[in-house]
Amino acid sequence: MTITIKNKEEIEGMRAAGRAASQLLDYLTPFVREGKTTNQIDKLAYDFIKHDLKSTPAPLNYDPMGGNPYPKSICTSVNNMVCHGIPNDKPLRKGDILNIDVGVTTQDGWIGDTSRMFVIGEASIAAKRLCALTYDAMWHGISKIGPNVCIVEIGRAIQKFTETQGCSVVRDYCGHGIGRNFHEEPQILHFVSPEAKTILVPGMTITVEPMINAGRKETKGLPDGWGVVTKDRSLSAQWEHTVLVTETGFEVLTLSEGYPELPAFITSTKT
What gap in Å lies between CA 188 and CA 167, rounded to an integer? Predict the structure, then answer.
C-alpha cells in the first residue's frame, strides 16, 4: 500500500473524522466507572456512532488477515492488556486502568483513530504514573513531527523518554498512516529501528500510539486472535492521536475538550 498525501479537501475530511472520534471518547467518558462492563460501553459507542455521528465504527468486522473479523465497535484493554481487547461482560473494578481505542469512519469515508486511558476509582500510584508517563511519551513523539523529518525521530523520542522512566516500549505493534483505509503506510514505530526510514511530508496523516509496559516489552497474543497481553503480566497503557503533517509542523486532529491538559513541553498543537 502506498503512502497517501491528502490535498486541502481531503484534509478537511480527515479533520471531520478526527473530531468525530474524539467526540465519541468524550461521550463515553461519564459511563466509564466501577461496575460498568466493557460490553455496555461498546453498545453505547455503537449507538452514538450510528445515530449521533451518522458514521460507522471502523473496528467492527475489520478483518485484515481474513477469517477472524473483529466483533465489536471499540477496543477495550484492561490492566495488563496491551491492545485490541474485545469488550466483554466483566464489570470494571476499582483500581483498574482501561484503554478505550476508537475508530470512526465518516459518511465521506475518512477515518479518525484515537485512544485514551481511564482510571477506575482510586488506582495505585504505579498505575496512575504509568498512564501519565504514557501520555507524555505520546506527546514526545508527536512533538517531533514536521516536514522533512525522518519517522525514526518519533520513535527515538518515545523510547528515550520511556526508558528513562524505567518502563518499556512495546515493539510488536505500532502506529500507522491513515485516511480512507484504517491502516496505511508508513508504519510508525515507537522505538529506534533502521526500518524507520520514511521522510514525513505535508499532507501525510499518521497515528502516534505508543504502548508502554510497566515491566518488560514482550507481549503474548490471546486465543481469540485479537487481544494482546504483557508476557510478564505487568500493567500496560496506551494513548493515541491522529496527526496531520503540515508545511511547518503538525496538527493533532483528534484533540477535544475531554483530553487532559497538554504537557508543559508542548506549546502548540497546530503549527
Answer: 20
3-state secondary structure at position 217: coil
Domain residue spans of the chain: 8-252
Average pLDDT over residues 183-196: 96
In the chain, which residue ranges form alpha helices assigned H by DSSP? 8-28, 38-47, 125-142, 152-164
C-alpha grid cell for residue 207? 497515528
What's this model's pTM, rounded to 2 decimal places?
0.96
Q: Is the dihedral of CA 149, 154, 159, 162 positive or negative?
A: positive
SS3 content of the chain, % helix, strand, coil (to 5): 25, 25, 50
User: What is the chain's Cα-based Rg?
Assistant: 17
* Residue 271 CB-half CA count within 13 A: 17
Quote the CA–CA distance of 157 and 170 in Å, as a whole number.
Answer: 14
Q: Which class in CATH covers the domain with range 8-252?
A: alpha beta
Predicted local confidence at residue 65, as pLDDT: 86
CB-based burial label for 256 (10 Å; 0-12, 13-18, 19+): middle
